[in-house]
Predict the 3D structure of the following.
Amino acid sequence: MKKNLSACTTVLVGKDATIDGSTMAARNDDTFGPLNPMKLVVYPAYHNHPNQVKAYLNKCVVDRPADGYRYQGTPNIDYVHEGVFDESGFNEKNVGMSATESVYANERVLACDPLNTESGINEDLIVAATLPFIDSAKDGVRYLGELVKKYGSAEGNGVIFSDKNDIWYMEIVTGHHWVAERIPDDAYAVTGNRIAIQQVDFDDTDNFMWSDGIQEFVESNHLNPDKHGWDFRHIFGTADVFDQHYNTPRQWYGHKLLNPSVDQDPLDFDLPFIMRTDHKIALEDVEKVLSSHYQGTPYDPLGHGTDEEKHLFRPISLNRTQNSHVLQVRPDLPEAASTILWMSFGVPTFTPYVPFFGNADDIDVSYRETPMKLDMNLKSAYWMYRALSMIVESHHAEFSKEDLDYLKDAREYLYRWVNQTAPQVEGMDDKQASEFLSTESHKMVAEMAKRTKALMAQLIMHGLELSKLTFIMDKNL
């Protein structure tokens, strides 16, 4: 099976740990190469229409129920060669899903339960096979668990499910085995491509779920290296030099930003998955983690460390980040406008998170139609924000302040837009609310395009003044 590495970073925040009581489930979708065009779409609900969803990257074919909910997706444009990879979105029942965080099991456990690479469920179709049919975050874990039991898994995947009350993180690690943990309401979690879940309490079915027979599987195959406890990461995960330079530093820096008083080591294999802070976490804090690149440390690729230090650790935000998203469910807004997919196309270090209501049934054409190559008219949101990223990074020292001001102004505008738009759906029926949210979204997207293109024009003109092909004329000549 062909698998373009999806080397992502995940941030999860429980409702009592956030400043506004929302749940937030966030992830960077990182691909193998720097350009992998994608779009944001809404798939319509369907009824009395049993069908199948087929993977493009292996021979998996999943039977789907006759009735399915409307849901959002962020698929690849070249799906025939790259797979569909719907990645993230909400369904009409206000359930969010983000998939996947690639995780890797050790050879000891895979020898006992190999991945079904030939026909097992994979990231290519995992959202389409699951999100249209679930009614809650916990139901998502149950439903996907049944699919893994029936079809097997083609790869190691971390999958996020969220609703207004719960966030569940599910790690599918071998051909048939998985564990899921509910993020405590007063806590947050950070992970990046390593198996994250640690101690599992099999007596606590409110906060843990697992595949049938996983305890017996571990015991009969002598897989637990610990004398005491049942640490999922220790049993199924890896701990090697690659982890220390590619994975653990991202988890370390996420904790450093959200929990700056805690002193940790970026090379520590046992960094905690779940932590608590002495302050409330806001949307911009999550965005800050996902857009980060070790600022304030010698490891910043855009900083002032040595060449060796700047290339020692893989940053969270990088040019292979195709989209960065936050699935937020806000209890202070009307139910029809309570789910918001905050989407950043491009490198999130340089580009804004644009809000799309989960119950809007229409997406602006600039997001749902993306050409394979850059269109200089910049009608595509994906290419517009990719182009902005390149322009800012090309003269980072000179352009970073202007870009920072643009991002701050964008956040202020977009936060205000959500707070003013959402309450207006109160009293509307579902159809009216969806149409209203769609109409207002088109206006917001147009405003963001106007602001972004104005910044790009400003930066290009500034860049022309920075050319090294210059010569100062002697005024006396």
Observations:
- Residues 430-464 form the longest helix (35 residues).
- The mean pLDDT is 96.
